[in-house]
Amino acid sequence: MKIQKQTDIRNRRLLLFFAGWSATPELFVRLKAEEGTDIMICYDYRVLTFEEDLTRYEEIDLIAWSMGIRMAELTLAGKYTFTSATAVNGTSCPIHDTYGIPEKIFQGTLDNLTTEGLKRFNRRMCGTRDILAQYEAFPPRPLEEIKEELQFIYNSCKEHSEINSQSTPSSIPWTRAVISSDDHIFPVANQHNYWDERCPVIEITAPHYPFYLWKQWNEL
Fold first, then answer.
1. Which of 76, 90, 158, 188 registers the highest number of CB atoms within 10 A of its CB?
2. Half-sphere exposure in the Cβ direction for 55 (13 Å, CA)
3. How many other CB atoms are there within 10 angstroms of residue 10's CB atom?
4. Which residues are within 8 A (CB) of 137 and not within 5 positions of it... i.e. 6 or more apart?
């Protein structure tokens, strides 16, 4: 795992963000926090090693997007207490026919991950040409690297598949879930299946990648 410290001036509060698969930290420049808050962005889940010591922070607000939700759980569960924990457009069961991405679809993405296949994925993720242009304004990570990352995510989720029913508690006490009504990566119905009985849910009008609306939905 890689960590970019977007703001690190030894504040008392931290916004800790777990990005989704294939993402680069530059995509999240819109992340803004209250005054007196550091920002750390976690990405590239080819190795799940979190070496930062966060004990100096008095308050930690966790936000995890897409595959970052499960990666945050596998990395941080039981290590820290969070002031808030927000899950965005994903679930703790990211490869699941009822609570996540159906397994055949996930496997198809993994088996057909070419340059053109990634472009198709990005188009579905962004929804519109304008949002796609914003997303693609930053150089992508190497294709072989993100292939390795997706395979590692798949292996990790299959190895740690203990969360497979509505009655099983998440390993992080999520305080809210944000679901985009136009999400074409994680089925909206599956997200509701997972979250509706677990924590408050906010539904917004956006695609899977909603961070161009960061200020609007983060203040809800």
1. 90
2. 3
3. 7
4. none
Share of the chain above pLDDT 70, in %: 94
- DSSP 8-state secondary structure symbol assigned to residue 35: T
Residues 50 and 10: their CA atoms lie apart, in Å, by 18
Q: What is the pLDDT of residues 111-147, one digit of tens each?
A: 989 999 999 999 999 999 999 998 999 999 999 999 9
pLDDT score recorded for residue 218? 66
- Tell me the C-alpha distance between 130 and 132, whole Å: 5
162 to 21, 126, 155, 165: CA distances (angstroms): 21, 31, 13, 9
Q: Which of 47-56, 88-97, 205-214 has the highest mean pLDDT?
A: 88-97
